[in-house]
Amino acid sequence: MSPALLIDRTLTPSLGRYTDEEKARVQEAARWAAQLHEGQLRASGEPYISHPLEVARILADLGMDTGTLIAALLHDTIEDTGTTRDEIASRFGEEVALLVEGVTKISSLRARNRKIQAAESIRKMLLAMAKDIRVILIKLADKLHNMRTLQYLPPAKQKAIATECLEIYAPLAERLGMSSLKDELEDLALKHLQPEVYAEIEHYVNERIEARTALLEEIALNTKKAAEREGIAVEIQMRRKHLYSIYQKMKRKARPLEEIYDVLGIRLLCNTETECYTLLGIVHRLYKPLEGRFKDYIAMPKANRYQSLHTTVMVPGGTLVEVQIRTHQMHRTAEYGIAAHWLYKEGITPHRVDVGELSIINRLREWSSLKATSGQFLEEIKQEILRDSIYVFTPKGDVIELPKGATPIDFAYHIHTDIGDHLAGAKANGIIIPITAELQNTQVVEIITSPHAHPHIGWLRAVKTARARSKIRAWINRHDTTYLVEKNVVVKKPSEPSPPPSPPRARPGEALREEKKIGIRVGTERNLLVRFARCCHPVTGDDIVGYVSRGRGIIIHRRDCPNLSNIEDFARRQIEVEWESVSPRTTWHVRVRSRHTGDLFSEVEGAIRKLGGHLIEGKITEQRLDELDAYFTLEIDRKEQVRRVLKAIRAIPSVKSVSLVE
């Protein structure tokens, strides 16, 4: 098929809302992109230009502005053709060039390390997104089309891309309120990661649609008639849960597929907020609501501005039906999220708002000022920005969003660095709580400060936000002569190092700073930086030891590294180190296989805690719908306790087997 015909069939039908001048610019960009990608093919064998055309079509269907569409058409040209940023700017303007540059991967690192390249590319894209939200919208459309055509890639690559989609891009779409796009990304990821599970759930849902369509139509008709009697014009939509959300519910509630009843539901759309609450009363009058299944996201919107009323009712025959009630405007925001702010009014001009009001944008802007390696950045992003959030209040009523598990320390540093640095105590709902306690949703948090209080090394093990961790590290490196904190490692400085032989002068054991790097002086060695040994590759949770090398800084080894016996002066140049996130207790890695349950993590954590241990981290995967395979890293005070811990885990009813892992 010729490029002109591809453009006409793929993109042109989606340009109906744009002016003739705008259409001309977009089609000019499409023709140039086709010329630049001439001769290139996708893994499917299709001309490469089919991909940017599909990406632009997705964005056109979202109602994005022409600058975004043009950038989408050109998003791979810098990376995959000989085109430069300047050429794009001269043809289509600086704005388009910046968008294309923001989406372009970093290729200069490819030869060195593909993992570093991927992490750094995502970091670059996210920071560009903080400046212009359209960068991530282009990337999400790009990812969606790639996921739709993932079957043409080798299986290993399919799984890697699908996993990245679940960990980064689907959560990003959710944080931006783009539920329709997020749902499709998650379903496609599940399809490639667990095809048998996907097929089983899809078959189950299709059967339920056939069996219950008539019932839902009857509920819709009854509700519509009751609403009309109240003078409310209501639009009613049938809806089904997307497959990944059903899968997640099975995991969370440890239920088999046959016990997931509310896979189908209805959505009521009206004109005003007041009508939403009137409709809620009508639904509850017609059908019995289930206790504890009502959520009011209108009074308390989600961070992505999602608003809706959710309730679950029991209809005749004992069937459970989930009902969502929202205005038409709320529905547009729910479906398109931040993209809804570019939707055209009367096909003339786009309507925009200040996207800086979105919490994720503000947090990414804050992140841009924090120093972290690309790998650290990506892991922190996954754990902090893309995980579940809680919302707590200041005494003045301001809402603060924090990652789930955050503590008063995180809260204090979120308010201001000085408040965090002088944190002495905290109250939640008027009751004094430990400063390391996990905050709960909707608590009113009050911070107590003292001019004599200051950060402690132990705080690093409690905090969940990168900002708090960065500020604590900075204070310790600046004021505490006992420790140096770098690369997630705490170095305990010798109490009596020999004095420095030459300027720059520093007191014994004091951290030095040169070229924005933190150094340490031990004996006659200066500006020692922390490095990880390549022979034993220590990872968080391993028992580690430091070696003060000559000229290469402090080398971190696993304590059982066989190479240590070959270092002649190891005993004399050894230095005490530990992970900043865990205490220097004995660390063990445990594998657990169990029947499918939603409580495995909490039950294992409880068994470990009862014996005085601490669960550092855990990873649970599904082998089949009825079986879990899990790996846990834990720490205990004494080696002899490990047998008691294994026995306690083995006693959990759902556990089939437990073993230590080297």
Approximate helicity band = 40-55%
Distance separating the two termini: 56 Å
In the residues, how many domains can be counted?
5
- Which consecutive residue ranges, at least 5 long each, have pLDDT under 50? 106-113, 343-356, 496-527
The CATH class of the largest domain: Mainly Alpha
State the major sheet: 6 strands, mixed
Structural class: alpha+beta
Number of helices: 23
Proportion of beta-strand residues: 15-25%
CATH topology assignment of the largest domain: Hypothetical protein af1432
CATH architecture annotation of the largest domain: Orthogonal Bundle
Principal-axes geometry comes out as globular
Rg measurement, Å = 28 Å
Give the total of beta strands: 26
GO cellular component, one term: plasma membrane
Domain HD: 48-147
Keywords: Kinase, Transferase
Domain TGS: 388-449
Summarize the topology:
Blueprint: H1 3-10, H2 20-36, H3 50-61, H4 66-73, H5 77-80, H6 85-92, H7 94-103, H8 114-131, H9 134-148, H10 155-175, H11 179-193, H12 195-229, E1 235-240, H13 243-253, E2 264-270, H14 273-286, E3 288-289, E4 295-296, E5 309-315, E6 319-327, H15 328-336, E7 344-345, E8 349-350, H16 359-367, H17 374-385, E9 389-393, E10 399-403, H18 408-415, H19 417-421, E11 423-428, E12 431-433, E13 445-449, H20 466-479, E14 483-486, E15 489-492, E16 512-514, E17 517-519, E18 530-532, E19 544-548, E20 554-558, H21 570-573, E21 574-575, E22 577-579, E23 586-595, H22 600-610, E24 614-624, E25 627-636, H23 642-650, E26 655-661
Helix pairs in contact: 2-4, 3-4, 3-9, 4-7, 4-9, 6-7, 7-9, 8-16, 8-17, 9-10, 9-11, 10-11, 11-12, 12-13, 12-14, 18-20
